[in-house]
Amino acid sequence: MTREAIIPLQSYRLARYAVPIPCYICEEENTFDAEYCSHCAAPMALAHQVRSQKLHPRLIGVLGASAVGKTVYLGMLMDMLSRQPERAQLLARGAFSITLQQTTMACLAHCAFPTKTPNEPDRWNWVHCQIRRPKQKEPVELIVPDMAGDALLQEVDHPYTYRVVTSYLAKCVGALVLVDALALKEGSRDQDYFTMKLVSYLAEINEDPNKGWARRPVALIFTKADQCEECLADPAGFAQTHASGLWQHCRERFGVYRFFAAGVAGACAIRESPREGRVQVPLRIEPYGIVEPFEWLLDQLYAQGWMSKKRRTVET
């Protein structure tokens, strides 16, 4: 037995799917209700925010090997900028942009470092924020993701393994490259080799002498410098002595670069864990040199005109 009923077609729903929304990172088309880009897995929330606010954020890369401290550095940078309006005031855009800051500070408060960033791009923490500086009249919108070090390594060794990495770095106006100072001090050359690969990869994405990475500012930051007095005293000299390959690559490939030293944990200890074995934990938090590289990068971007409203994206 059947009953008669009138069911509205609601064809307006189909019309919304007929208008694609381009991903802000790779510019591939997606449906209006997609959470992540079907091509590069970047969050579509970025594209929706850009459309609603009619703003064009600039992209900055935070790069480095696995366990170098990218998550800790970026989370601490966000926390410090959100509490120091006299230097540069940070305002997060979207609830998802606060997750990285919240997670990092919660871990440090419990004497632990954040867990390793997963390789899957849809599990990365993306930060979309507005930066206001006292000496600049107009604020600037920035997008900065916490990319996994292992994903960066795979992309460098096997290009287009992670399309989001290539698409993102091609549009970046500048980069913060992190290097483990403690590993270099102990004689490990892996940091030097990986960062040389990364520098070469950046330079080859766009070799235009006027618009390529040869003209974009790059801040090279030695992390965990609180455990290396030599690095704190002279970051450039430390690079020339302990990372000579990276030093030469920067001189040959970048026109605007500078070495910095940074640290978050004032003192660390080793804890024995039944599941994880020997784990390094922070005993106290004493941030050093966190904001200075970011401020230098912004100064260079303003000086070269990368923050101009007329300059929407970087030509690749």
Write the layout of secondary structure elements.
Elements: H1 12-18, E1 21-22, E2 29-30, H2 45-53, E3 58-64, H3 70-83, E4 89-92, H4 99-109, E5 125-132, E6 140-146, H5 149-157, H6 163-171, E7 172-180, H7 181-185, H8 190-205, E8 218-223, H9 229-233, H10 235-242, H11 244-253, E9 257-261, E10 263-273, E11 277-288, H12 291-304
Parallel strand pairs: 3-6, 3-7, 7-8, 8-9
Antiparallel strand pairs: 1-2, 4-5, 5-6, 10-11
Helix pairs in contact: 3-4, 5-8, 8-11, 10-11
Give me the count of strands. 11
SSE order:
HEEHEHEHEEHHEHHEHHHEEEH
Beta fraction of the residues?
Answer: 15-25%
Radius of gyration using CA atoms only: 21 Å
- Tell me the number of helical segments per DSSP (H or I, 4 or more residues long): 12
Largest β sheet strand count, sense and barrel closure: 7 strands, mixed
Neighbour order of strands in the largest sheet: 4-5-6-3-7-8-9
Global geometry: globular
Low-confidence runs: none
Average pLDDT, to the nearest integer?
Answer: 88
Distance between the termini: 64 Å
Structural class, by secondary structure, is: alpha/beta
Share of helix among residues? 25-40%
